[in-house]
Amino acid sequence: MSVQFRNNVHIAGAGHATMVFAHGLGCDQSMWRLLAPAYQDRFRTVLYDLTGSGASDRAAYDRTRHGSLHGHADDLLDILEACSAGPVVFVGHSVSATIGLLAANKAPERFVAQVMVGPSPCYLNDGDYIGGFNLDDLESMLASMDDDFPAWTRRMAPVLMGASRAELTAELVDTFMRNDQGIARHFARATFLSDHRADLLHSTVPSLILQCSDDLIVPREVGDYMLRHMPNSSLRVIDDQGHCPHVSASTATSRAIDVFLHRTLG
């Protein structure tokens, strides 16, 4: 099976370097429609759906391989091998930011920069670390996904997109509901119960951490923690509500990325 088919890969643009975009939990590559076209005159752009999400080949979703974010990181490296040209700038939203981190730690020679949009290496509070959720909170949320996925989606979408954005919220609900619910629930556990804080220390790739100023999923303390523990990283906070600034504040997100790329790549 080709990775292009497995992950519904779409390639556009032209350039010496490749910019790869990866979406977050429950979403698909359409989440980059407001951002990716701005880079097609400078980069070869690669958009894909995580295995099991969007229009990827759901039969390729392996509950053992993809029960860990490392499996998705290996998928990403497969895609780079098949579809990238030259050095890679990776742009990952939410859980895909961590997937990109793991891939870059495994094969740092493939990456020249990474942009982490709404990242979190660990969603669980742990002593002085503020991840945003207690274990009981996460278990309750995951149980509600199991009990009634559509109802959970309708409750979660305004939190992710910002409560005042009815049109974008409705679109996000539709995107979530196109997923296989069993796969989505399995991937949610791999996402929310993982702890990749130790992997931050091994990063060697220049990294931009992008956060919204008001994000109920990933509190500001997470970005500050990542900045302290991740070598060669910088933090930019966008004045916006929600967890998806590449959709709700695409212009501000693009500007922040452009500043980072100019400083990093010249």
| Multimeric organization | single chain
CATH class call:
Alpha Beta
CATH architecture: 3-Layer(aba) Sandwich
**CATH superfamily name?**
Alpha/Beta hydrolase fold, catalytic domain
Indicate the CATH topology.
Answer: Rossmann fold
Q: How far apart are the first and last residues' alpha carbons, in Å?
A: 38 Å
Overall residue-averaged pLDDT value? 96
- The number of domains is 1
Task: Describe the overall structure.
By secondary structure, this protein is an alpha/beta fold. It has one domain: Rossmann fold (3-Layer(aba) Sandwich), CATH 3.40.50. It is 43% helix and 17% strand. The protein has 11 helices and 7 strands. The protein has helices at residues 3-6, 69-83, 95-106, 135-147, 149-161, 166-177, 181-192, 197-200, 220-229, 245-248, 250-265, and strands spanning 10-13, 18-22, 44-48, 88-93, 111-117, 207-214, 233-241. The chain has a 7-stranded mixed sheet, sandwiched between helices. Strand 6, helix 9 (220-229) and strand 7 form a beta-alpha-beta unit. Helix 2 (69-83) crosses helix 3, helix 4 crosses helix 5 and helix 5 (149-161) packs across helix 6 (166-177). The longest helix is centred in the C-terminal third of the chain and has 16 residues, at 250-265. It is globular, with a radius of gyration of 17 Å.
Strand and helix layout:
Blueprint (H helix, E strand, L loop, with lengths): L2 H4 L3 E4 L4 E5 L21 E5 L20 H15 L4 E6 L1 H12 L4 E7 L17 H13 L1 H13 L4 H12 L3 H12 L4 H4 L6 E8 L5 H10 L3 E9 L3 H4 L1 H16 L1
Parallel strand pairs: 2-3, 2-4, 4-5, 5-6, 6-7
Antiparallel strand pairs: 1-3
